[in-house]
Amino acid sequence: MPEIALRHRFGRDGFALDVDIAAPAAGVTALFGPSGCGKSTILAAVAGLLRPQDGRVVVGGEVLLDTARRVFRPPEARRCGVVFQDARLFPHLSVETNLRYGLRRAPPDAAGPGFEEVVALLGIAHLLGRRPGGLSGGERQRVALGRALLARPLLLLMDEPLAALDAARRAEVLPFLARLRDSVGAPSRDAARLPILYVTHALDEVDALADHLVLLEAGRVVAAGAAEALSARTDLPQLAGRRDGGVLLPCTVLERAEGLTRLGFAGGELLTTSRAGPAGTRLRVRLRARDVALATEEPRGLSTRNILRATIAGFSEAAEPGEVFVRLAVGPTTLLARVARESLARLSLREGLACWALVKAVTLDHRAAEPPGPG
After folding, report:
1. Phi then psi dihedrals of residue 79, to 5 deg
2. Are 87 and 165 in contact (CB under 8 A)?
3. According to the model, what pLDDT value does residue 188 have?
4. Phi, psi at residue 69, to the nearest 5°?
5. What is the pTM of this model?
6. Domains in the chain and their CATH numbers?
7. CB neighbours (10 Å) of residue 364?
8. Average pLDDT over residues 306-335
9. Residue 374: pLDDT above 60?
10. 336 pairs with which residues across the strands?
11. CB 47 within 8 A of CB 82
């Protein structure tokens, strides 16, 4: 389990960082927050690109930094694979040579994926003979990721790797990152214990990738925990205060019929118009609180396909004074509805009341589990 404790101030009155983070030993830990909250500073300190005034960093049982004991491993000795916003590939080398440069940096006895495995994982076999100048932004990032993986790191650091890409290229790369997360997290793999520290301020990247979430603000940790659990908390304005805030719901594809995909979750089923993969595909759906309507009588004659029997579990204040969060229990699952405060009195909403939660099939957001083929 990576342990990160950092204290650092830039100048006498400058930005101050004060964080303690314990990340899981595998999977993606996302550092999430607005620009200037300290996300990239943390990554720089972990990678050895910043020497903090006080701190301790331990990865895979190896102490990379301990200011109290005057331990500071240089960046090249930390075995941290780093992927930046810009790919930083060698422009005069082919894709294959860029990748093999990473392999040459790997310790001779280090376990990890081989060249062919990484190429297949990232779908870049058709790019091997080309140079970086002839690649799209998304392709360059996939090659940079492959180079970092082939160095057989103990920890993979990703500093907003999609921030410089347009929407189409981001949509291209995200599924490959999800495939990477699933690959290095599989217990039978050599790289099973490879943790990934991922910096982002984009909620859709959190939805698609994050297992563990660390919320940051002004150099401090506001909250940390499983991404799905934090998404249901209304006391976190970094999440609940957003207009796209809502519950992150783990689902399984059951079937697709008549243009709709049926998803199963703990407590019920949902229909979506989106193609979400074959039956058995696991994914997460963001059920935005603003997209959930309530009815105190069973609705009939609606175009809305998702009508879930629920019980009101409680109420929370929303950022807007005229709005309220209603917590709903659908079996063991908690959903959130954002409703006008006026609705509370008009519908006599109260804790324990049985009701129906209405969600339009066209509003559900999810991330595909498999990336597209090469092209």
Report:
1. 55, 45
2. no
3. 39
4. -105, 5
5. 0.88
6. 3-231 (3.40.50.300), 246-362 (2.40.50.100)
7. 23
8. 95
9. no
10. 327
11. yes
